[in-house]
Amino acid sequence: MGKVEAIIKSEIVRLAKREMRKVTSPLKKDVWILKSTVSQLRKTVINLERFIALQKKERDKQPPLKAAPEEVETSRLSPRLIRSLRKRLGLSQRNLARLAGVTPLTVYQWEGGVFKPKEEKKGVLVALRKLGRRDAKRLLEEKKAAENKKRVPKTKPRRKQKKFRK
User: Fold this and answer.
1) H or E stretch at 93
2) What span, in angstroms and rounded, lies between the C-alpha atoms of 145 and 64?
3) Which of 19, 60, 139, 163 has the fewest CB atoms nearer than 10 Å to its CB?
4) Pairwise CA distance, residues 109 & 145, whole Å
5) How confident is the model over 61-71, as pLDDT tens digits?
6) What is the Rg, in whole angstroms, of the alpha carbon atoms belonging to the chain?
7) Contact 94/138 with Cβ under 8 angstroms?
8) Between vectors from CA 52 to CA 50 and to CA 55, what angle results, nearest 5°?
């Protein structure tokens, strides 16, 4: 009887394996296709992320505020016009200085008539004329965010606490 049981058992195992192969072989093909698709999608995402990083670097390199050289030459910037531009955009001297890439003292001196803006900064001011309040605030926020990314917080070394005697 032992031989018959073993034969029946082996036959059941053989038929079960055969049925499982019938069911799983199409699934194996589907899984293989899905894996290759996911792999291709991963590569595409990686390439797109690299492209975006390059685009961001290029955008950060280029100053956002530029005006045509002809426009800069023909424009006049008096201290009163600089002050009225700043007021119209709703900016403080510090914020205008941040947008123009100068110090707040320089803006103060421009508005006081002590100095005139050089050609490069004059181009920035001419470009600022074309912006509205929202655009100026957005540019300012972007500049602040970029500056904050560059700054590394400084940590102070811990001081040893003095032990008090009782």
Assistant:
1) helix 93-100
2) 15
3) 163
4) 27
5) 655 677 788 88
6) 35
7) no
8) 110
